[in-house]
Every structure is written in C-alpha cells, then in structure tokens.
Amino acid sequence: MINIPKGTKDVLPSESRKWQYAEGKLRGVAALYNAHEIRTPTFEHTELFVRSIGDETDVVSKEMYTFEDKGGRSITLRPEGTAPVARSYVENSLDSMSLPLKTYYIISAFRYERPQAGRLREFHQFGAEVYGATSPYLDLDCISFAYDALRALGLKNIRLKLNSIGCAECRKKYVDALRGYFAGHLDEMCATCRERYGRNALRLLDCKNPECKKIAEGAPVILDYLCDDCRAHHDKLCSLLDSSGIPYEIDPGIVRGLDYYTRTVFEFVTEELGAQGTVLGGGRYDDLVESIGGKPTGCVGFAMGMERALMLMEKQGVDFGEDRLDVFVISQSPELAGDCMAIVSDLRRAGVSADTEMTGRSMKAQFKYADKQRARFAVVIGGNELESGRVKIKRLSDGKEEECGISEIAARVKETI
Ligand code: ATP
Ligand code: MG
What we know:
The chain is of the alpha+beta class. The protein has helices at residues 16-32, 46-53, 58-63, 82-91, 136-152, 168-183, 191-199, 210-217, 228-244, 288-291, 306-315, 337-349, 363-372, 383-388, 409-416; strands at 36-37, 43-45, 65-68, 74-77, 101-110, 122-131, 159-164, 249-250, 262-269, 278-284, 299-305, 325-331, 354-356, 375-381, 390-395, 401-405. The protein is built from 15 helices and 16 strands. Strands 1-5-6-11-10-9-7-8 form an eight-stranded mixed sheet. The relative contact order is 0.12. Bound molecules: adenosine-5'-triphosphate and magnesium ion. Residues 80, 111, 113, 118-120, 123, 125, 257, 276, 278-281, 303, 305, 307-308 line the site of adenosine-5'-triphosphate (ATP). Adenosine-5'-triphosphate (ATP) binds next to strand 6, strand 10, strand 11 and helix 11. One of its GO terms (cellular component) is cytoplasm. This is Histidine--tRNA ligase. Residues 27-313 form the Aminoacyl-transfer RNA synthetases class-II family profile domain. It catalyses: tRNA(His) + L-histidine + ATP = L-histidyl-tRNA(His) + AMP + diphosphate + H(+).
C-alpha cells in the first residue's frame, strides 16, 4: 500500500460536506463585502516569496517547498496567498480598475513544518486582500470582514488581538532599541536568533523557542516608537473599532511572521485549539506592491486557516447539515433494474435526487442501503406497479405511505422536502 505523504490529509466523502458548508458561508460573506474571487497558480517563482515574505522569516528559511523544474527554474509551492495575489495585481495592472479593489481566495498552501493538530504541510486558507487602501476605514472594513467570516461559520469565543508595527521609518528606531535590549541576552538565545540579530532583529520577537520567548517578553514595545503618522493611523483604527462594537485587545506581542507587514497587524485567537490557537491573521502591507515592481499601494488583508476553523466548528458543535438523497427506488427483482433506472432518470431530470439498485441485491439489503444514503423516501417497483402505473411512496423516517402515479413521484416528493 502507498500511504498519503506526511502532513497531508484526504477530505473523505463523509467530510466534504463540512468544507462545502464552510466555503459556502465564506463566499457569502465575501459577496456581502463586495470582494471578488481571484485564483492564482499553485506555484510561483521562488524569488517572489523570498523578496516579499523575507529570507530571514521561518516561512522562507525553513518551510518552503522549493524545487528546480525541468527548465532549471527555481519554483516554490505557495506557502501563502498574499504575495501571489500582489504579483498578479502588478502583472495584470489591476490598479487600472477602480480602487479600492477587494479580492478573496480559498486556496491550498504548503509549508514544510512538523505536522500536529492544526498544523499540516498542505493546508488551506480563506483569505482577502484589499488594494488601494491607505485609510484606516479600510483596516476596519477588513477586520470587520474577518470578524463576520468567523461569525458566519458559527464560531464563538475568539479574541481579536491588535497591534501596529509602524512603517519602515519608525521600525528603524525600534530595531535599534531591540538590538540594544537583545545584546545583553544573546548568549541565552538560540542559534537562529543569534544569527538573525544582525540581519533582522524584529524576527527575534516571533521565535518559538521557549527560552527566546521568555526573553522577548521583556523587549521594548513597538507602540512606543511609532512616528506621528503611524500613531494617528493606529489611534484612528482603535476609535473606529470602539464604535463598531467589535471587541479587541491591544497586544504588543503580535508582530506576525512575515516581513511585508506595516502598521496594523491582527490575529483572531482561541484557547480551544491548544498551541495552534491562531485561527486567522492579517494586517496592512503598504510596501509590498512597490517591492515587487508596482506603484506604492496601500493594502490590507487577512488569511484564515481552514483546518483550524473547521476543528473549532466541530468542537463548538456547529451543525453542518447532512448529505441526503430524496428518493431511493427499490427494485423487487433484478430484471426490473432497467425500468427502475428509467424512473430514477426522470426523477433526476425533474430536480429530485434519486438512485436505485444496480447490483441485484435483496429488497432487505436495498432498504438498508437506502437508510445508509439518508434517503427521505423509498418507492418499491415490481411488476404490479409497472402495469398499473401506481406506486406507494414510503417516508423512511416514520414509515408513512402515500399512493400516487409513477409520473407524480417528483411532484409529491418536492411538496414535502
Ligand atoms: P503559526 O504561528 O500558527 O505558525 P503563522 O503566523 O505561520 O501561524 P500565517 O502565515 O499568518 O500563519 O497564516 C494564516 C493562518 O493560516 C494561520 O493563522 C493559521 O490558521 C493557518 N496556518 C498557517 N500555517 C499552517 C499550517 N502549517 N497548517 C495549518 N494551518 C496553518
Ligand atoms: Mg507558521
């Protein structure tokens, strides 16, 4: 037997309904927010991710699925959706459409990580990216989109944590302060942090090593280093959130693991999923489009981890509904299979889901199978029924029967479903 690769999962027929349910709700919310779907390829040139996410981040330095294709190009399976969408925005001159432009996607993403509950090597994200958006009203709109998306899935007890990581200018001063602080602790920190200290000291704040984490807790806080414009942006967003009624808390520990963020960063977190508690993360990235060759463009976006959202939905008892079959046509003897299939075919054309026996099993086995398919009704077809054109429709939930003509089955069933 050949097994599934480590860190990947099949979505089995018995589980796909949950995904479809969640995806349907999310597409519904996206439409309410005037967001349009964008689809980009599963792989991109490696350079795109190195340049945008940053080569000192965990994602780029440790987690990417990178390979050389037969043409000698370095290709990477997308580890996230923001950079590919930004690439497409620049390449297709989407700025010539009226701005702001709101996009969304449901994608698979790939990261070489240690698999555990809520952490896979192929996982899925629902994400949104808004372009041409420098005003804090768009930060609010984006956070509110994320909030409504989580609510549409029926999720509860998720806290919004907010921070600002400023712009390149305030970050320069902040990074100096960080270096000053970490200089005294370097010998207690991990090798990666010591290496990153000189090149990208901000990354020392999201090291997962417990020792480094403890030291990072005492580090200076970026909110104290914001320039006037970044401070005003942050304050305005806080006051907008206050009046919107979306509860939040300021958490200076939120820096996000990707380099492209500027100003607003946020996470929606739960206590109910253990270490993998971040269900959704996002923020503003005003320098990204320019860094990959476009015009300076204010942008804000988020990505929700679908597996984590679904795990939480299950934990919180969300009702996903169930796949059901409207009618199962029971064949009294194997020779009648052709007649039963003709009836089923008419039912399907009339918009009623239907199936019948094709393997010659006993009536008892067919009733059992109909139950397993969650059929609402069963119709038994024998010689008498075919001759008279009259059948009995049996409701499987309580056994109640009703008589009607073969050609009326679809209408009768539709009345009751
Ligand atoms: P974490 O800190 O848990 O590694 P992250 O900061 O790397 O998350 P992002 O890059 O912000 O994650 O991705 C957005 C969301 O995608 C996360 O909040 C999470 O829900 C989900 N996600 C990220 N990596 C994985 C993974 N390997 N498996 C499953 N879901 C993931
Ligand atoms: Mg990660």
